[in-house]
Design goal:
Length: 167
């Protein structure tokens, strides 16, 4: 109790209108989103380096755009976790425990890369969508805004990747 008062006196206690319990639930969901997003970032960067074939130039450039956007996104997600008062996961070990996405064990051909990225963007969208009810319950508009933006990007990217696979 004395420690709590000390934090309050120093202005360090978080009082943003969301209970600590709700902030913890939201941060846990955002941590899973961060882990999936970082896993997708690594996969996309890997494919950018290793793509070959007739669509090399187009895919190489597209993957670069995707991993650049994801690099910015992981920072925004991690900063929201911190704003909620919790440490953001930041190691491969933590990401491996939290992520629902798996890293490919080999380098697929270009079409395989597109399919894996399509599946992963859809997977990240599902992870983001799972946090929405927690954020809605807590009236956490900043997190809802972040989730809406992530959903729009992942769903649009999945649509574009799916279009590349149509025969």
């Amino acid at each position: 109790m004395a420690e709590q008062l000390n934090l309050k006196e120093k202005g360090m206690e978080i009082d943003i209108g969301i209970s600590k319990e709700d902030r913890a639930k939201i941060a846990k969901g955002l941590s899973r989103l961060l882990a999936d997003s970082y896993t997708l970032y690594l996969t996309t960067h890997n494919f950018h380096w290793n793509v070959t074939g007739p669509m090399f130039n187009a895919l190489h450039q597209m993957f670069e755009g995707h991993y650049t956007e994801l690099a910015e996104a992981v920072d925004v997600i991690a900063e929201r976790i911190r704003a909620l008062g919790f440490p953001a996961p930041g190691t491969f070990k933590e990401f491996e425990k939290l992520a629902s996405l798996k890293q490919p064990e080999s380098v697929p051909d270009a079409e395989g890369m597109i399919q894996i990225l399509l599946d992963n963007h859809e997977g990240v969208a599902k992870t983001a969508r799972a946090v929405v009810p927690q954020a809605e319950k807590a009236n956490d508009e900043p997190t809802l805004d972040l989730l809406t933006q992530r959903l729009q990007i992942h769903e649009k990217t999945a649509w574009m990747l799916r279009s590349l696979l149509e025969k």
